[in-house]
Amino acid sequence: HILGPESDEIKLKIIYLDSLIGIFINKLDKIDIANKINIIVTSDHGMGTISKNKVIYPEDYIKQEWLDKYTGNNPFFMFQPKEGYLDSVFFALKKAEHLQVWRKSQIPEQLHYGTNPRIMEIVAVADSGWSIEYRAIVEQDKNFNGTHGYDPANKDMHTIFFACGPAFKKGYVHPAFENIHIYPLIAHILNLNPAPVDGNFDAIRKMLKGN
To answer: pLDDT tens digits for 57-115?
Structure first.
């Protein structure tokens, strides 16, 4: 968030972490059970580059007195209009370029977001590389270079996944997949019964030997 994903400092940190993982694997190779250990290297999400030159300010489109409440964290915001102002808020925000705006009932199914009672009546998400935030927050934020929370289909939100060990095929490259499938994968490798989740082991089973 502070430096941005393309900064020199982040690149140096990646090199450092890569060397630490190398040391870790070299140490593992020296123990008796090395051939029984599976290793997965991944993270929770990707990161997109942003700047103060590409910001959508809600107050430029809607009046504060139209809202009962709102909440959000760039690049995502929810708005709860006061009674009688739902259309005013919705159509005003729809005028903003580089901003996706939905009524709660229209949120795309793949986002798994519209059915929870905590979700407000209007949801807005900025396009990749763009931000949505109130002006006072942006002016106070001296480090405004990276964020996440865009549509998971956005390649900037994709992360890494490397795996090795007796359970995994060597040299296999799997198509991109959602992180929700990693939990059932690990449960399968450990021969455990996973709790009911949205993840599906069958979505990534081809990376394992014997599949």
So the answer is: 999 999 999 999 999 988 999 999 999 999 999 999 999 999 999 999 999 988 888 78
DSSP assigned state of 176: P
Give the per-residue pLDDT at 116: 85
Instruction: Strands of 19-169 (E only): list them.
Output: 39-42, 48-49, 55-56, 67-73, 76-81, 99-103, 122-126, 131-132, 146-147, 161-164
pLDDT in tens, 157-184: 999 999 999 999 999 999 999 999 999 9
Q: What is the DSSP pairing of strand 122-126 with strand 76-81?
A: antiparallel
Q: What is the CATH number of domain 55-147?
A: 3.30.1360.180
**Amino acid letter at 9?**
E
Say if residues 193 and 177 touch (Cβ distance below 8 Å). Answer: no
Beta strands 131-132 and 55-56 are parallel
80/119 Cα distance (integer angstroms): 9
Q: What is the pLDDT of residues 33-57, one digit of tens each?
A: 999 999 999 999 999 999 999 999 9
99: number of Cβ within 10 Å: 20
Sign of CA dihedral 69, 71, 76, 78: negative
